[in-house]
Amino acid sequence: MARIVIVGGGMGGASLALLLAQRTTHDIVLVEQAALAADTLPDTPSYDARSTALALGTAEILADIGAWATLAPFAAPIRHIEVSHQGRFGAARLDAREEGVAALGFVAENRHLGFALLKALRNVRVDVRAPMRIDTIVREDAGWAVCLIDGSALCADLLVVADGVQSGTREMLGIGVREHDYGAIAIVCNATPREPHCDVAYERFTRDGALALLPLTQQRCAIVWSLPAARAQAMLALDDDAFCAALSEASGQRLGGFAKAGVRSAYPLVKVLAQEQAMPGAVLLGNAAHLLHPVAGQGFNLTLRDAVALADTLARAERDGVPPGDLALLLSYVEARARDQQLTAGLSHGLPQLFTADNALVAGARDLGLLAFDLLAPLKREFARQAMGIGVFTGGTSRAG
Ligand SMILES: Cc1cc2nc3c(=O)[nH]c(=O)nc-3n(C[C@H](O)[C@H](O)[C@H](O)COP(=O)(O)OP(=O)(O)OC[C@H]3O[C@@H](n4cnc5c(N)ncnc54)[C@H](O)[C@@H]3O)c2cc1C
Which pTM was predicted? Predict the structure, then answer.
């Protein structure tokens, strides 16, 4: 039996710990810097005021690792998706019934998602150390000597780096990143529309950026509104009534406009990709490996697909007697995930660029694209499969579906 130390108990790290507890007999230690209360909703950098759109495939994985039963009452189904562009005629629609599923996905508040993951962790053999941080890591023959800030030490055969985009552990390992700053900020809040949302998710593109209105429980909507930094600051400074009026206008008065908005939070938008995701005895996961633009709601869904692949790779290796820190093994995982990661990162990066482009040719193609997308069943179905987390989008060339 080997020991795997996961640094970071956010959505990525906690999910991987549950998968490893289920699929391997390894000794698993999860080190999280924030305090994790047992019986209240968490409030940590990962489990904060945001909501997350969960693909259908993600919900299935959460069920598999014992978190869905707790989360389900707080997860609102998405039965219909409408993608539109302000002032243009094109619109694309996806419908659960047409795709032969009860829901295209779900939306849950991060705090409820965190509560469900942490509750599931209490039922498995994972040694959760929180609040705790790593002080130093030293490479040894077959792994790492990991010193924690309380003075204790652990030997790790594999270190999983899941401590977020500003990962201190990634830095300790000397792994660099490539960054792209979008010069934009995502305003996140919950808001109450005047009319029922009827389980519809709206993604609306404006010249300024993207606005997502996602259905939440209690007839609320989760808002993710990306704006150029200066305009976002102006929106954050408005009083609630003025903000609701601006939001209603930007949404094209969808759902009759908004009557109430909760606390607003701001997230600067950057894409950060680690230059390497594996080295001997260490592998990166989640935001530490890839932070994407949130426009397509794919970051956690992608991370969970990575986590399943990593857990399966480590489970196979355990059966074959291969140590979990073996570089060839970890590189085989990275290679297997490269295509999905590249496609998802490309989609998340390309969408905002496409929709804010001024060029008339691009604008025409974009509108025709939205219209054609609505008319072309195979392309639409394939996109739906990718959005639901059950396929890899190929632009209509695959025969899936
Ligand atoms: C506005 C916004 C909206 C989004 N919407 C969606 C969506 O709809 N769907 C979707 O799939 N994804 C979405 N995402 C992406 C999603 O939030 C991320 O993919 C997800 O947070 C990745 O989780 P993580 O565990 O890798 O990193 P994080 O969430 O950053 O968690 C890192 C964890 O590590 C801990 N930590 C940090 N440093 C240390 C340390 N030194 N020692 C120990 N612990 C440490 C932190 O406390 C935290 O718990 C969105 C992101 C944003 C910004």
Answer: 0.92
